[in-house]
């Protein structure tokens, strides 16, 4: 077998290491020889340990008063850019090709104008469009483009495949977004971005500054933060700051951030305080701004008039940054698609720049076209005062409070069906990557077989079922069922498969496995539950009251938990649109008003309750009969179909006796937990935060966690965990996407897990012990920034369930229904998460792992899963 190189990325809170592996030819990962053996030993040596580290107590952006330190001299960098959405009102291909907003033409225009005008600069962000252009560009234009990037006049800022959302994606997807974009740039242009330009996400979170820092991007430009917070930052001269993770006391992962001064990244919004003046400099033919006049430079009088206006607006920005250097964004959506756009901008701006620069005694200013890198280099060179350090995130994004729909929380669960689909695709892609690595087959050949099987199955007499019975049987008999565990630990997991007959035997080798055949959900065929139902396994018993949503009870067999809880659903009128939510209370409970019966399934593997509440909602509660600790949770599935209920948002509520004092925790894109607080002074929708995977509340005795298989929004009042389920809109919020283009909602299958955990009373003594044993992790702690190992195991099972395959193996003589899994990944230590493993070149494999500091404040029931240490 040919030798391969491996790149390994270990991500930990405050630690990141890249290992280049040579001569990798083993079937296992354990014999690898690492460049930094000490770090690996530390990672491997934490067998079934938990660590008490600082939980984020306050995510409010803290701003201290700063003395204004305005220099007379001002350097101004005007950043030309075009914001190109990879799909919005039109498809990706339509945006690339059509004349009205041709990205192809934009890039051609940029190359042509920069070659003609040496002082002109431009920045580009989205690599997806660049790849599309590069694939059809001739060698001459490719060389032009590369020369411009080599000269630094055309900067790729960010360099992600797309400018991703920051509220809803799981962090692994964002890592992939970064890697795919950067790998392409390395291959085609031999460049690595050093700055980030992310100006259109609807709020900014803590995931991006951390992940970008790991990618050696330590200088960021952002835009959409709450208007009120931005105004406070402007008044305190702090639109420049270093953005830190709360746990990063040593400031190792704190990029320098520039916030654009106003609402948008456009010419009209970017040049200063007065939009009626700034819009005058939006001179391109394809300009979208409405303005009574445009800057003219046809005579000395015009040059003096508009030159002074431009200089005054640029000077007005200086106080916001307390700096002698400012950035001015000069772009818009799909701007510069006309061949004359950049020529006009160059002529007008260059003329005004010369006027301002030549009259230095009057303006004390040097103005020029620049890139983001040049701007940050200028800031660093001229910086005299210490930069403020801010922590927290900017969710939810709230624009002008005077708008009819200012709170951008509707998109957290808009088009829920797509969020479910996206998470499934993520899991499937990760699995395909793991299989290609485990089988040592480069993906081209590995996926070729999958494509052939797919082609076979969609034959017009196969997928339609129009062949004779024996032909259909032959289609089916050519496949075996394979089960693949894609996690880094062994697990006992519930596997479900729809079948056409109840007469089934499941075998593994010579053994007959325990199987349970249950009917597909059909109210006519199920047994009606008229009394209280008991669901139990070896860990706990649930007493479920089918007549009341508020009087259920869970009792753990070891005596640690005996808690009452309620699970109820409600809806509220929502006047928001695709982006925003405008709740109009009162909330309407979706109790079983139609007196629909509940149905029960009980068997040796699992037991469940199925209940339809309304034509829009049904739910299923499942308890697994297993010795595996993941059975300490119970599964909750929601079947939503809200398409006929336009103008409503639907919620699931878990009511407990936990005294959380309106404090709750949501996850930062699956990386760790961040503290939130329900503020009664704000509207309901302004108290909703992104829930990518997790919502948790706790007090001194009990913790309750809801895990989600799909992104959504969440909040919590006293003792109640509230999760957004689905919505159907019937209003236009005026944010750019018309109502008729965004109003559909398809049926969705939503998956959750609910976990109760008992707290440890002697927390202080445990913290002291852990701090002394684990001094390589942050220790300024009274709480945690992570969850327990039990929650992590359940989360991975929810995100990456065991996969079922139909495989073709003509040479096999084994007729058993279930074959041996062919993925051969090693078992990892309990506190190491395998993020992904995949080929990035023919002989190069990338493995991403994460060191997880588990919480110690809850009772742990887990036993070590690995013998590696």
Report on the structure:
- This protein is α+β, with helices and mostly antiparallel strands.
- It has a domain at 74-392: 7-stranded beta/alpha barrel.
- Helix content is 25%, strand content 26%.
- The strands form nine sheets. A ten-stranded antiparallel beta sheet has the order 18-24-25-26-27-36-33-32-29-30.
- α11 packs across α12 (341-358).
- The longest helix has 23 residues, at 416-438.
- The protein is elongated, with a radius of gyration of 29 Å.
The averaged pLDDT comes out at: 80
The main sheet comes to: 10 strands, antiparallel
Relative strand content: 25-35%
CATH topology of the domain at 74-392: 7-stranded beta/alpha barrel
How many helices? Answer: 19
CATH superfamily of the domain at 74-392: Glycoside hydrolase 38, N terminal domain
Radius of gyration: 29 Å
**Uncertain stretches of 5 or more adjacent residues:** 1-63, 445-481, 522-526, 762-784, 810-822
Strand order of the largest sheet: 18-24-25-26-27-36-33-32-29-30
Number of strands: 40
């Amino acid at each position: 077998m040919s030798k391969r190189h491996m790149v390994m990325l270990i991500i930990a809170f405050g630690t990141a290491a890249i290992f280049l592996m040579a001569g990798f030819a083993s079937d296992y990962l354990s014999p690898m020889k690492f460049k930094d053996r000490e770090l690996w030993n530390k990672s491997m040596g934490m067998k079934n340990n938990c660590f008490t580290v600082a939980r984020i107590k306050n995510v409010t952006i803290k701003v201290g008063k700063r003395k204004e330190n305005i220099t007379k001299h001002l350097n101004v960098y005007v950043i030309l850019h075009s914001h190109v959405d990879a799909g919005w009102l039109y498809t990706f291909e339509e945006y690339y090709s059509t004349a009205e907003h041709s990205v192809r033409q934009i890039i051609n225009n940029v190359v042509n104008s920069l070659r003609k005008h040496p002082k002109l600069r431009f920045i580009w962000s989205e690599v997806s469009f660049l790849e599309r252009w590069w694939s059809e560009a001739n060698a001459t234009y490719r060389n032009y483009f590369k020369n411009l990037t080599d000269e630094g006049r055309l900067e790729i800022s960010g360099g992600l495949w797309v400018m991703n959302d920051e509220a809803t994606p799981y962090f692994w997807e964002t890592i992939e977004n970064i890697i795919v974009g950067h790998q392409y740039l390395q291959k085609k242009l031999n460049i690595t971005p050093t700055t980030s330009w992310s100006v259109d996400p609807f709020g900014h979170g803590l995931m991006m500054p951390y992940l970008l820092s790991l990618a050696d991007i330590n200088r960021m430009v952002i835009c959409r933060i709450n208007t009120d917070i931005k105004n406070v930052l402007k008044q305190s001269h702090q639109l420049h700051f270093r953005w830190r993770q709360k746990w990063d006391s040593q400031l190792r992962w704190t990029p320098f951030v520039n916030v654009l001064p106003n609402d948008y990244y456009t010419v009209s919004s970017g040049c200063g305080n007065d939009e009626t003046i700034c819009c005058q400099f939006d001179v391109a033919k394809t300009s979208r701004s409405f303005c009574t006049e445009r800057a003219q430079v046809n005579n000395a009088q015009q040059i003096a008039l508009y030159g002074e206006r431009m200089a005054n607006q640029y000077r007005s920005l200086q106080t916001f940054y307390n700096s002698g250097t400012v950035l001015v964004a000069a772009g818009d959506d799909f701007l510069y698609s006309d061949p004359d756009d950049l020529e006009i901008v160059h002529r007008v701006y260059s003329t005004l720049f010369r006027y301002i620069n030549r009259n230095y005694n009057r303006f004390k200013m040097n103005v020029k076209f620049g890139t983001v890198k040049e701007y940050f280099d200028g800031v660093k060179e001229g910086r005299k005062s210490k930069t403020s350090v801010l922590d927290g995130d900017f969710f939810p994004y709230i624009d002008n409070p005077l708008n009819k729909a200012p709170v951008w929380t509707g998109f957290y669960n808009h088009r829920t069906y797509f969020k479910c689909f996206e998470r499934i695709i993520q899991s499937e892609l990760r699995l395909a990557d793991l299989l290609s690595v485990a089988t040592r087959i480069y993906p081209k050949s590995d996926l070729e077989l999958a494509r052939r099987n797919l082609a076979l199955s969609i034959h017009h007499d196969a997928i339609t079922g129009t062949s004779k019975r024996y032909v259909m049987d032959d289609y089916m008999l050519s496949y075996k069922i394979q089960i693949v565990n894609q996690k880094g630990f062994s697990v006992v997991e519930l596997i479900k498969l729809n079948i056409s007959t109840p007469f089934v035997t499941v075998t593994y080798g010579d053994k007959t496995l325990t199987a349970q055949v249950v009917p597909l959900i059909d109210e006519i065929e199920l047994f009606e539950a008229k009394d209280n139902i008991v669901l139990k396994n070896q860990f706990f018993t649930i007493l479920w009251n089918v007549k009341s949503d508020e009087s259920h009870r869970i009792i753990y067999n070891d005596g640690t938990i005996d808690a009452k809880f309620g699970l109820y659903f409600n809806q509220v009128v929502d006047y928001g649109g695709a982006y925003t939510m405008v709740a109009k209370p009162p909330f309407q409970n979706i109790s079983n008003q139609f007196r629909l019966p509940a149905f029960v399934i009980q068997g040796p593997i699992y037991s469940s309750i199925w209940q339809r509440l309304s034509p829009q909602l049904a739910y299923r509660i499942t308890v697994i009969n297993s010795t595996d600790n993941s059975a300490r949770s119970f599964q909750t599935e929601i079947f939503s179909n809200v398409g006929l209920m336009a103008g409503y948002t639907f919620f699931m509520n878990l009511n407990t006796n936990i005294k959380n004092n309106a404090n709750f925790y949501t996850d930062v894109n699956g990386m760790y937990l961040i503290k939130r607080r329900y503020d009664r002074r704000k509207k309901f929708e302004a108290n909703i935060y992104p829930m990518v995977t997790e919502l948790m509340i706790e007090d001194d005795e009990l913790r309750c966690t809801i895990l989600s298989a799909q992104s959504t929004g969440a909040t919590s009042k006293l003792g109640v965990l509230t999760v957004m389920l689905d919505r159907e809109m019937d209003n236009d919020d005026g944010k750019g996407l018309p109502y008729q283009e965004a109003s559909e909602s398809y049926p969705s299958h939503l998956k959750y897990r609910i976990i109760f955990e008992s707290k440890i009373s002697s927390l202080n003594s445990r913290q002291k012990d852990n701090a002394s044993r684990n001094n390589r992790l942050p220790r300024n702690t009274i709480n945690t920034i992570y969850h327990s190992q039990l929650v992590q195991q359940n989360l991975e099972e929810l995100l990456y369930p065991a996969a079922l395959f139909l495989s073709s193996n003509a040479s096999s003589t084994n007729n058993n229904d279930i074959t041996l899994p062919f993925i051969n990944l090693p078992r990892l230590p309990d506190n190491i998460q395998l993020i992904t493993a995949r080929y990035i070149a023919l002989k190069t494999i990338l493995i991403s792992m994460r060191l997880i500091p588990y919480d110690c404040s809850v009772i742990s029931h887990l036993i070590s899963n690995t013998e590696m240490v």
